[in-house]
């Protein structure tokens, strides 16, 4: 049985990945940690062991790994793209500091490490349509720079020290549980909340801005499946392109209008987010993930929209 440590358990991915891991591996085998402790999320506090970890402090990670005999670390600590631009040093300290600390601890204690990368690891020189698995990566955001650095460090620790590192280049993640906060793709989550609350949504991106996206249940499944994948089949490790759909704002709004016909949208474009989005792929080629560990998303724009609206309507009724 695995003994797993989740760092950043209360964040957008962690608040759904942690319960999913507890369901698969047992509550007592998944230790939830975050910077703020005890967590505001009562369910996470109460459903299994939990502790405070500041991912920039290697001792916090090492102490927990020793105490619970951890063999796998899910390192989810990060500051998203737009927020990191407001404080690049903090973006670097958390984005790279956490990866390096996890890798060092993993080397010493023999752990596997999962760290999400992102479409943000690409830049304007990258082919935007059908972005290949292996291609030019010259991101222009601090977030992207931390993601490329994390990918390279993770490969380095695998090649040099045999640490079992694995990673996914996530697209924009859409969840009905926890709001992202500070990302470029956040609009695709926030519009669903505006739709069910009957509020006007101010769209920060221009019509025609295509980006890869994924519904959170697929992201959770991808993370667990990759960590369970047979290592002999993995040609790549850090990091796999994965996507479930690609759309631009009008496609998303029209899909929501099938269920909420009076959805009100105003375009109020945000220069920072638009520039970042313009530098990211329109859609990635994720055939390496499909071939090497059978990646296959379950949700598309239609099925995700039905599920998002159904869940949020129940919560806000
Ligand atoms: C962001 O927009 O910063 C993130 C991402 C795509 O990595 N959602």
CATH superfamily grouping of the largest domain: NAD(P)-binding Rossmann-like Domain
Which outline best applies? globular
- For the biggest β-sheet, the strand order reads 3-2-1-4-5-8
Structural class: alpha/beta
Distinct small molecules bound, one entry per kind? 2-amino-3-ketobutyric acid
Our estimate of the beta-strand percent is 15-25%
- The CATH architecture classification of the largest domain is 3-Layer(aba) Sandwich
What is the makeup of the main sheet? 6 strands, parallel
The count of domains is 2
Instruction: Tally the helices.
Output: 12
**Which CATH class of the largest domain applies here?**
Alpha Beta
Within the CATH hierarchy, at the fold level, what is the topology of the largest domain? Rossmann fold
């Amino acid at each position: 049985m695995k003994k797993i440590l989740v760092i950043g358990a209360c964040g957008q991915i962690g608040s759904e990945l942690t319960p999913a891991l507890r369901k698969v591996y047992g509550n007592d085998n998944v230790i939830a940690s975050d910077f703020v402790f005890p967590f505001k999320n009562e369910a996470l506090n109460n459903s299994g062991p939990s502790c405070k970890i500041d991912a920039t402090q290697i001792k916090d990670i090492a102490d927990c790994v020793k105490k619970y005999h951890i063999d796998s670390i899910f390192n989810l600590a990060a500051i998203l793209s737009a927020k990191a631009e407001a404080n690049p040093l903090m973006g670097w300290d958390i984005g790279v500091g956490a990866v390096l600390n996890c890798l060092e601890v993993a080397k010493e204690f023999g752990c596997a490490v999962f760290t999400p990368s992102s479409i943000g690891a690409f830049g304007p020189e990258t082919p935007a349509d059908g972005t290949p698995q292996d291609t030019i990566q010259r991101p222009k955001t601090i977030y992207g720079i931390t993601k490329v650095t994390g990918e390279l460090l993770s490969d380095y620790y695998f090649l040099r020290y045999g640490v079992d590192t694995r990673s996914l280049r996530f697209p924009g993640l859409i969840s009905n549980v926890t709001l992202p906060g500070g990302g470029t793709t956040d609009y695709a989550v926030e519009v669903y909340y505006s739709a069910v609350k009957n509020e006007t949504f101010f769209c920060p991106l221009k019509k025609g801005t295509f980006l890869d996206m994924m519904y959170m249940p697929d992201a959770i499944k991808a993370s667990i499946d990759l960590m369970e994948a047979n290592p002999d089949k993995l040609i790549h490790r850090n990091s796999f392109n994965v996507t479930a759909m690609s759309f631009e704002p009008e496609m998303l709004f029209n899909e929501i209008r099938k269920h909420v016909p009076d959805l009100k949208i105003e375009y109020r474009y945000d220069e920072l987010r638009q520039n970042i989005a313009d530098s990211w792929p329109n859609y990635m080629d994720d055939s390496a993930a499909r071939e090497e560990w059978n990646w296959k998303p379950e949700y598309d724009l239609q099925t995700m929209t039905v599920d998002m609206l159904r869940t949020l309507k129940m919560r806000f009724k």
